[in-house]
Design brief:
CATH architecture: Up-down Bundle
Strand order of the largest sheet: 1-2-3-4
Strand content: 5-15%
Structural class: alpha+beta
CATH superfamily: Outer membrane efflux proteins (OEP)
Number of strands: 4
CATH class: Mainly Alpha
Number of domains: 1
Radius of gyration: 36 Å
Shape: elongated
Helix content: 55-70%
Order of helices and strands: HHHHEEHHHHEEHHH
CATH topology: Outer membrane efflux proteins (OEP)
């Protein structure tokens, strides 16, 4: 227990410069791995558009074929070599490619909306972690002061017992209340350490000295306004709507398979042929051909119809997902508003209670000195004063967190709220880079070596990743493997 107390004391020591909430959010926005993974997800889905566009782009392939007839001599007779290039240009796909492009566009929109949702969650979580650290540290201070007050109370009670002014029962009550306060202090120190671990997980570094919470950004005026804004701006609801659009386009993709497909194929090759011993001849030269290939399904044994119904069921699932998400968004917005208003009421009551309990505690202490109150009354008054102060600290924390949970639901807890507009990650930048890319050998660097694509501009370099685990095939051979 003493070791925990020393750790907390070291963490509470104020360094030269205090960290602000804006700086903590900026660090989380720049380095949080969960947010970086969400950005990588958007980049992965960006590639669905160039993949869809490739359906109407030409393909070029090369081939070489060598054959040799087997005879007694294995000489040049019966040898055939063909090397060439084949170019295929799709000219008709029944409208499938356009539907695939529309579906991919909706999928990119859904991915970006989900990225916004993750950004809002990480920022709201970081605000909550920051507020929790401040509140936990304040509770440590309050409990430490309570221990100090009760230690003085115990010494005074022992002195008065020595002169016969108090009974042994009074001293025992003071001793018991002091030990309870010490236990509460240790619990508060443990809570402070736990709060710091959540901060480290989100921000990537331990919290040093933290500045007080800044004023809250603008909030809706009432719950009706909050619910209306949530239905309009919630990133989760936007993602659900994009999902339904993508599902509807996928239905079109499968239906348009009935329209068939056509392509123009061009082949250019060099051919070298040596005849056999009974038919001596030789062919050397270029050959070429151009042909048009078209196909249309007539009977698929119900396969296309089944896939259409399957895609329609997926669209139906997405339609219901919109309604389910809307209900959840409204519930979360309402609950956050309720928590916000509840915390406001608790703050007002706690402030009145602190003033009243401070006055009552001083009065009971003075009455105890003249013998009209016993020690237990003094101890209870001190405890009630501590409880009201702790309640105020927790209510102020709860109000701040509830406000940002409301902003999270509304999609307004993003980095721009805290003035981080100069360091925002732009998901459209990668989209513009890959949307109409044609280069065949164009890949990104190894993600283990270069993680900059998942970080906003100016973000610090991430820590090196641990070594890859060894292959499971590198162990000893299984029995009987030889």
């Amino acid at each position: 227990m003493r070791q925990v107390s020393l750790v907390v004391l070291a963490a509470l020591a104020a360094p030269a410069a205090a960290e602000s909430l804006r700086e903590a959010v900026a660090a989380a926005y720049a380095t949080n791995p969960e947010l970086a993974a969400a950005r990588a997800t958007v980049r992965r889905i960006d590639e669905t558009l160039p993949i869809a566009r490739s359906g109407m782009r030409p393909e070029v392939g090369g081939s070489i074929n060598f054959s040799q007839d087997l005879d007694d001599n294995l000489d040049d007779f019966g040898r055939r070599t063909v090397a060439g290039v084949r170019i295929t240009q799709p000219v008709w796909a029944g409208g499938r490619v356009q539907a695939q492009l529309d579906a991919a566009d909706a999928q990119v929109g859904a991915a970006r909306a989900r990225l916004r949702a993750v950004e809002n969650q990480i920022i709201a979580d970081t605000v909550a972690a920051y507020a929790n650290v401040l509140a936990a540290r304040e509770e440590v201070v309050l409990n430490r002061n309570q221990v100090r007050v009760l230690e003085e109370q115990l010494r005074a009670s022992s002195d008065r017992f020595e002169v016969g002014d108090l009974t042994r029962t009074d001293v025992a009550q003071s001793q018991a209340r002091l030990e309870t306060a010490r236990a509460n202090l240790v619990a508060a120190e443990g809570n402070a350490l736990t709060a710091e671990q959540a901060y480290i997980r989100l921000v990537g570094r331990p919290p040093g000295s933290l500045e007080p919470l800044p004023p809250l950004p603008p909030l809706p005026r009432n719950v009706e306004e909050a619910r209306a804004i949530a239905l309009e701006t919630s990133p989760a609801l936007a993602a659900a709507r994009f999902d339904e659009v993508a599902a509807a386009e996928n239905v079109k993709v499968i239906k348009r398979e009935r329209g068939g497909q056509a392509s123009v194929n061009s082949t250019f090759a060099y051919q070298a042929v040596r005849g056999g011993p009974f038919a001596p001849f030789q062919i050397d030269g270029l050959i070429g051909a151009i042909n048009v290939t078209a196909s249309i399904p007539i009977l698929s044994s119900g396969l296309i119809a089944a896939r259409v119904r399957q895609a329609q069921a997926a669209q139906s699932e997405a339609v219901e997902g919109i309604e389910a998400t809307a209900r959840l968004v409204l519930e979360n917005a309402t609950n956050a508003w309720i928590l916000l208003q509840t915390a406001d009421s608790v703050i007002r009551s706690a402030k009145v209670a602190i003033d009243a309990n401070a006055l009552a505690s001083e009065g009971v202490r003075q009455e105890n000195l003249v013998g009209s109150r016993d020690i237990l009354d003094v101890l209870n008054a001190e405890q009630e004063l501590l409880n009201s102060r702790v309640a105020l600290v927790r209510a102020e924390r709860d109000r701040y967190i509830a406000a940002y949970r409301l902003l999270q639901v509304l999609g307004r807890a993003e980095a721009a709220v805290l003035g981080l507009t100069d360091r925002l990650y732009d998901p459209a930048q990668n989209f513009r880079r890959v949307d109409r890319a044609w280069r065949e050998f164009n890949s990104d660097p190894d993600p283990r070596e270069d993680r900059s694509r998942t970080r906003p501009p100016g973000a610090p370099a991430p820590a090196p990743l641990p070594e890859r685990p060894p292959s499971i095939r590198m162990g000893p051979p299984a029995p009987g493997d030889g």
